[in-house]
Amino acid sequence: MPSSGIPSARYSRQTRFAGLGQAGQQRLAQARVAIVGLGATGSTIAHALLRAGVGYLRLIDRDWVEEHNLPRQSLYTEADAAQLVPKVVAAKAHAQRINSACDIEALVLDLHAGTIDQALAGVDLIMDGSDSLETRLLINQWCVREGKPWIYSGVLGGHGMTANFRPKQACWRCVFTTSPEPGSMPTCETAGVIGPVVGVIGNLAATEALKLLSGQGQANPDLYMLDLWAWQFEQLPLPTPRPDCPVCGLRQFDLLEQDSAPTLSLCGRNAIQIRPQQPITMALAQLAAHLQQADLRVIQTDYLLRFAAETLQATVFPDGRVIISGTDDPALARGFYNRWINH
Ligand SMILES: [Zn+2]
Q: Entry's Pfam families (predicted)?
């Protein structure tokens, strides 16, 4: 290993690449990146940055691995799905075997106004793998307020798009000036998605990350869009920052200031998430004992507890979050929560 601390043989193909070079590789080793959402896009991005030698990755996701993730989400296995492993825990375990020198932090966490400061503090770049409009709006406000760059990635069906949003340039809200009504747009849950488009968009975003982190190369100045199924590709130049943009122009950060709502519906999943107003530690072992006294079958792992009762299924996390599956009705879910979990 040379005095720089970069293993010379391991990254020789990258350091020989004139666009990156030894200096760029050294900057990657010093770089700190947060990836929000470890689904298909986030897995692709994490995999690329990990292999490339980025020094620190913070993986943020609230979900566990499910069988229907396996066609696209390249860091997970059937065993992860069978064992209900949180995505970031599974991703970290696999990633550490690929690159043991990468410092990886796994946060099983729901990103909202109450958690975003902790989740994104101290990184150089934020990568969006969230598949959520609500989360993107939140990331955009946080990054504008804090003066941090982020890279947007979105996929749906055979379509994908990506753009770089950097301080003092147009923000996401300058480009997407109107928000669709919640629930009015198709999602990957309702319209589906194919794996290759995720791989393309995730790797485009990862390439941009390598440029921004290494300080080398010409970063993408556009909103880049493609439809792989129709074989169509389009680049729209990002506008100049809009003085009347509510986020970067008027600096209104309403989403960061609102109290986190106690109940959140997961659109299209026939499930409701209930989360506590304040951070708590849920006593999973005691809850399991109570439920077993009621003759319920309980599955408990190091990271979650799951049981079924009445017509619903609940998945309970140590931070107090509960996902109640089998209903779209918040009142029904709240009643179930009060009967079985929060007596
Ligand atoms: Zn803006």
A: ThiF
Q: Which residues are catalytic?
A: 188
Distance 242 CA to ligand 1 centre (A): 6
What would the mean pLDDT of 120-142 be, rounded to a whole number?
A: 94
Contact 47, 74 (CB under 8 A): yes
- Three-class SS state of 123: coil
Ligand 1 center to residue 241 CA distance, Å? 6
**ipTM beyond 0.95?**
yes
φ, ψ of residue 251 to 5 degrees: the values are 50, 50
For the packed helices 87-98 and 40-52, what is the interaxial angle rounded to 10 degrees? 30
Tell which CATH classification among 3.40.50.720, 3.40.50.620, 3.30.1490.100, 2.40.50.100 matches the domain 31-257: 3.40.50.720
Answer for the pair 132, 109: CB distance below 8 angstroms, yes or no.
no
Q: What is the pLDDT of residues 278-290, one digit of tens each?
A: 767 888 999 999 8
